[in-house]
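Troubleshooting log. The previous run stalled partway through. Resubmitting the same two chains, unchanged.
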Amino acid sequence: MNRIQKLFCEPKEKLIPFITAGYPTLDSTVDLVCGMAEAGANMIEIGIPFSDPQADGPVIQASSQQALDNGMTLNKIFEQVTQIRERTDVPLALMGYYNPILKMGHETFLNNCISSGVDGLILPDLPLEEAEPFCALAKSKDISPILLVAPNTPDERIKKISELAGDLIYAVSILGITGNDLASKDALAKYLNRVRENSVTPFVVGFGISSREDVIWFNEYSDGAVVGSAIIKNMDEGPNPVETTKQLIEVLKGRK
Amino acid sequence: MKNKFKDYNLPDDRGHFEKFGGKFVPESLIPALEELEQYYAKAKTDKSFQIELNNLLTHYSGRETALYFASQISEELGFKVWLKREDLNHTGAHKINNALGQILLARRMGKKRIIAETGAGQHGVATATVAALFGLDCIVYMGEEDIRRQKLNVFRMNLLGAEVRPVSSGSMTLKDATNEAIRDWVTNVESTYYLIGSTVGPHPYPMLVRDFQSVIGKEAKKQFENQSENALPDRLVACIGGGSNAMGLFYPFIKDDVKIVGVEAAGKGLESGEHAATLTKGDFGVLHGAASTLLQNEDGQVTLPHSISAGLDYPGIGPEHSYLNETGRVQYFSATDQEALDAFQWLSEKEGILPALESAHALAYLRQENNGIKQGENVIVCLSGRGDKDVHTVAEALGIEL
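Second attempt completed without errors. Output:
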């Protein structure tokens, strides 16, 4: 059992913050991840920066560009994950667009995931139609492929996606890009109930989640809440990104 | 090679040209792509759709466009050059063929809002034009660098009632305009039709843009047979950015014994690092929803292309071109900014036709030493657009202040 599988056996509230690897500085990721784990994050998503992030809004786009300008690469991310693993056992998922992974090669990429200590992968531009070979290989290496569903995904397809994923799926809260505003709570509840009924795996929700109230609400209707743009935006507001981010995590967890 | 292509019937049901093509998009776009596939499959066999499209192509865009035997340059070159005059279309380029086809699909799907990306602005103008014709809202995403290079087309789009949204991320060109259009589509997928301008993007776009553009090749084939002494030309030539004018000319000849050449933009030279020669210099990757060939660095980050021609300034290429390249059915050459500029002036002076800078790349190939063209060959060149939009760029390159 990998760390993600273990975590989702526990019926507790889950907060899953997202940060972009290499942002705000090339070396900030290790301390940020360990700090967030310390402050109560239950699992952490680390974004692989990409030149053309189609599913991302302006905040994550800008962080991605800055991370690339800082010199972040996939190999550096694996080095930093290795360092993170010396300090924390928090479940880690990499979130990234398909091309850099394809360029490294499925096998090499997944082997790097194993040796550094990555537990899961979120690939927003690898839908069911194209995901099968990659998912099969990932699962054979005990890495959880976390496939996405959206509000317009039909019931039967939600089921198929969750069957292919196997451990966990990620429900995008809105039709839109990261950081957009949420829809009405009624519409969201209806959608999340639909995911609950059709998914054979636990699921987390992300896109547009930013407050303690959101985290509580989404944990009622799903198995965890992902917060991304709000973390990145907040990071820019204090003098010390790690401290600023830890404080926000504590607020989102209801510790402050 | 001939046999392999005798029964050419790609893409397959999943939108693949073997390892190229497919649908690499966020989940929320999948239902929209499936809906588009269904409507397109219906339209293909629906006579009323075909009649409506043909009427528009004939009476609105002014098809068929001429196949012109360019006697002056033919005499100079020693082989026969036939220009397929897509520049004579309404709006001045081949882009309208596809825009008309897709706007009819959008109407059948009940979409009221049209979005598009544009590089040189020709596709933006074509989209703004057809949106005006059918009274639909139109938003065109365009990189700030392209807006600077193509002011005239920006103003044309505004006159046609479209909103041009400047894109300031990345290289501020076609690649980034496409990212922004995809983001808009993901957000507004239920109300919005994304009218892609080239044979790129997720399935079914590369197929349907090719099909709508293949009117170029179908006409050229018939015209050549009527106007020349031969049944088939020896060679076809077209410039390639995303590859729509080229696929339009090539597709009806794929099964025939005809040599086919695509010409990419070599910018400041293939070794300069500043070019858009995707097939010549790129490798396998996924961008804008399809597996194809990309200009990218060793970490899989897409690198910035360069071409004097905004329409070719793109780091990817249509998946079908990647397939035709890998199988050897089409040969791909490249021409530099300077060669294109020279060809622009050459055609203007010799034939009295100002070609688009994009099309000038195809013309430049005719003048290259190692192009493999034999004396007496019949060569059809797709003159994909007219050069009026490029006079500012050409003047700037020649150091002339207008």
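Takeaways: Residues 115 and 236 of chain A are 32 Å apart (CA to CA). Chain A touches chain B through 44 residues (CB under 8 Å).
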